[in-house]
Amino acid sequence: MIPATTEDVTAAWMAETLGLPITAIDAEPIGVGVGLLGDLLRVRLDYDGSRPAEAPESVIVKLPTHAPANKAIGMALQFYEREVRFFQHVAPSAELRIPRAWHAAMDVEAGRFVLVLEDLSHLELADQVAGMTVDQAKRAVAAIARFHAQWWDTEALEALDWLPTSDHPITMQAATMYRDAWPAFVEKWGHVVPEGGLAVGERVRDVFDAMLVELARPPRTIVHTDFRLDNLFFGPDEVAVIDWQLTTRGGGAYDVAYLLAQSMSADLRRRHDEAVLRHWYDALGIASYGWEQAKEDYATGVLLCLVIPVNAGAEIDLGNERGEALVREITERAFTAALDVDWQRVLDRFA
Q: Are 128 and 244 found together in one domain?
């Protein structure tokens, strides 16, 4: 049985799902205002007698969001199906710290999906609203670079036919969503956009389809596509990456663009973005992929990332004050980053 809501996550369900002698649970919602497409519980587990060896003290249970509009977006773009399949088929061999999946299941027709994941609360979770440090950025891009390199233009990548490319019809829906969301975004959040940013957003809106097609061209890899500070955990010697709902096959530099454009303050990014991008490029270590191409792909990625504040600001139920603060920050940061790249030259290529 796959829970329909967080209320269906009971001790009996946990015991049956994990095959462990669980007698009671203590479940608390987490991530409110952080994840807009999923409902998360931290579930502490009590056992019959002593805890079995290797059994977890607590787990994270992830279900689709209870917010109807948000879930509709997740279903239309197959976000929930992608993440379950990712944990079933990619995560076990990934050269990246990803939480262990104790259970991953779905019933697509019923719209039910569930993940029971390793609890990473012993690691440091940073705050995207507060912003990212340069050290965090370099550690994060070095970690994802190794993962990108693992899948870079491989036959194994092309065999993942359930994982859409950036120009797949499923992914291309983002262009329609951007266009449809733009008027409401401007009405609600236009006052937050820096001067000149709305003109850039309109240009991006008009060529978004063509930009997604370019993002899908080789060389490509597995792209996290939601690579931001709220989805990263930091330990002394590791960076763990969560939330793989938006995963696609495309250009890896997009992840770097997304991270810097939306998780770092504008002033800090302006001083360090090229050094962080170079850190990713060096860690990637793909000789056939030139540095000038990486910079061009980064600039294109920064412009494509405008879809996030536009769609989130216009369509998604933000949940609470923290969710609104997050959209405010990513709107200001993303449009500032777009203005800082050579956006006219980049967009002229798609006109």
A: yes
